[in-house]
Amino acid sequence: ARIPDLPADVTAREVKSVGVIGLGVMGRGIVMAIAAAGIPVVAVGLDDEHVAKAMGAIEKMWGSTVKKGRMSQEQLDRQLALITRSTNVADLGSVDLVIEAVTEDLATKEKVFAELGKATRPGTILASNTSFLNIEKLADASGRAEDVCGMHFFNPANVMRLLENVRAERTDPAVVATIMDFGKRIGKLSVLSGVCDGFIVNRMLSKRSREGFFLVEEGAAPSVVDKAVSGFGFPMGPFALGDLAGLDVQAAARKSRAASASPRELRADFVEQMVAQGNLGQKTGSGWYTYDENRKASHN
Ligand code: 3HC
């Protein structure tokens, strides 16, 4: 079966400290989720500038939670103190679990997994936050396939409860048990998936987006589609969600599925057009909607 069962009779290992490599929108949210659970985390970014930018964003988000009276300043300070800033993969040498959240591009991730395979101890779990790339290839690149798995968080990763853990062909059952247990420890609802297109959630959501694009092609306003779907119980419609996840990420996912896409899907290339214009969604302040600095949306 592609969607595997939970391994029986294996004990989860202890995870005392974690590393996150890649501090974009997803990496930052993952760092926040781990530190908020009281677990030390080494946050590795590309260079000092990226690390400073990510930490600034984290402090701002937690700062606003404090302002809303939902967290104390002491708690914020405690959480910040759990985060070690770094630009060096070698600093991941003593962690028990590394979560990779670099750019969603196979060659980039393969390079990172090759580095992680050398920089970490055997037995250190190497998890990718990829949403559609083939984890088997990352396992090959690492040279330690038994330690490699997926941990797919949802944006915003510090808020969304769901966590899709992915068991690849060669993942050690103890690794699967450990990440399922770890998900629970950081307050997530862990589900287990196999390596397949879009895992469980994005496989469903991509079809919802597809129909959204067709509706727009037929003349519907994106905001009306979003409103209709939100009225049906989803927290966000497909267009607002595309802006949140990043239209560049959505375009890359569409590209990875292009071989099996219908001519109509390929023709409804709104996302590609927006990316070409530099409109990537919330992160650039403009996508299907326009955003102010507090992520408040207005129609384009
Ligand atoms: N980034 C970080 N934090 C955010 C955020 C963002 N873009 N938007 C909201 N938040 C935080 C707020 O700061 C607040 O935190 P606090 O309680 O600590 O102060 C908390 O989320 C709740 O925010 P709001 O009070 O503004 O509440 P809303 O009711 O508007 O909820 C939402 C915002 C949680 C984003 C909600 O709209 C939601 O659940 N949306 C659906 C998101 C979703 O489906 N994500 C999955 C995307 S698919 C994906 O990620 C896959 C990947 O592979 C591409």
Automatic annotation (TrEMBL):
Domain (3-hydroxyacyl-CoA dehydrogenase NAD binding) ranges: 18-192
Domain (3-hydroxyacyl-CoA dehydrogenase C-terminal): residue spans on this chain: 198-291
Compartment(s) where it occurs, according to its Swiss-Prot or TrEMBL record: Peroxisome
Membership in a protein family: Belongs to the enoyl-CoA hydratase/isomerase family.
UniProt-recorded name of the protein: Putative fatty acid oxidation complex alpha subunit
Species of provenance: Caenibius tardaugens NBRC 16725
